[in-house]
Amino acid sequence: MQVSKWTFPVIAGLLLLANSPVIPENSASAQPSGQAELPKELHSEKKQTPLKPRKKLPVVTLEETLDPVAVRAACKRGISYLLKAQNKNGSWGSPTRTKGLNIYAPVPGAHHAFGIATSSLCICALIEWEAEFPESTAAINRAEEWLIDRLPYLRRADQTAIYNVWGHAYSLQALARMYRRHQGDEAFQARLKELIEQQFDMLTRYESVDGGWGYYDFRHGTKRPASSSISFVGATVLVAFHEVQQLGFEPPEAVTKRAIAAIHRQQKNDFSYLYGEYLKNKPFHPVNRPGGSLGRSQACNIALRMWGSKEITDQIIETWLKRLVTRNGWLDIGRKRPIPHESWFAVAGYFYYYGHFYAALCVEEIPASNRPPYQAALARLMLDRQEKDGSWWDYPLYDYHQPYGTSFALMTLKRCLPAGQSGK
Q: Is residue 42 very low, low, confident or very high in pLDDT (cuts 50, 70, 90)?
């Protein structure tokens, strides 16, 4: 199996969205990187099966009409997919379904991180919809016990791969939802409190020397990572910090301040954000331009807004929401491509559902009267991209992509329904 320096955010995420790869420094235009321009390790000796042409999707505008019935029907199919895809031990995803080209993922630690981040996102999504779809209750219970059992042992894979930061961040959001779900059960909440505090400690240990977080340290492999601060990784953690703070927990203050400062250093005048601080001397690298920042600006804007940054006004949030809709093709054209960052503006597929989830959080920040056009547009984008099996996915990442993509989409759609319409 071949590996490369390219990896997944998210997700994303993880994307987990975001687990996003290093951008090659020889990528100099907004055009897709040609095969000859890629690092040698990305050239697969196996003959790649040509991608099947994707169906042509309708153009989405800010003039869409929201159909709550269609949203709920899509979510029901998505939840059914997650229930069927859950592993027997309560988790989601696995290091299977490999392809000729796979991201750099030292075993087994990288997959511990992917599995915990993916499963945490699934827990978040199912808890958000549990009241309307109680058939998910048993699956949530199994997943909670699995997470409580496995999370204390999550660490970085080795001195180079720090994917565990995604697991620590998304588990915080899952723990926050679990904490609210078990209101009144003091013994269970005490277990959750210990885990929340442990994630604070882990994120302090793995903080970059520059503040914020990265997911690689190819520099020195030091105890405290010398990794470059990556804008959207910091944003992901700050959003998670904010959610647990609302429950009365206090994230480490100095660490939080340094993460905010790191994102500010990567912020450009138009509120696009550098991919990572290592690209500070290349502000016009395609990935750092608005088309390349579509999936990041939403996360960075909402993170800074949550932590009191006054410059993230309603107008800034709406400007970037409009861009996400009207320029959605720049993100969508990278969706499902098997090589990260080969698309225009060096966009990687796994930014797609990650970016839309954080956009949905941005929608919640603007006045209720301004939300409908964005809610309808985001819903249409999600509905048009649902797979026949009920899942959503944007990048083939072993067997994690469908669970994390589906979770992001479900949480996005939840925020597309106006207040008072999210129940039965």
A: very low
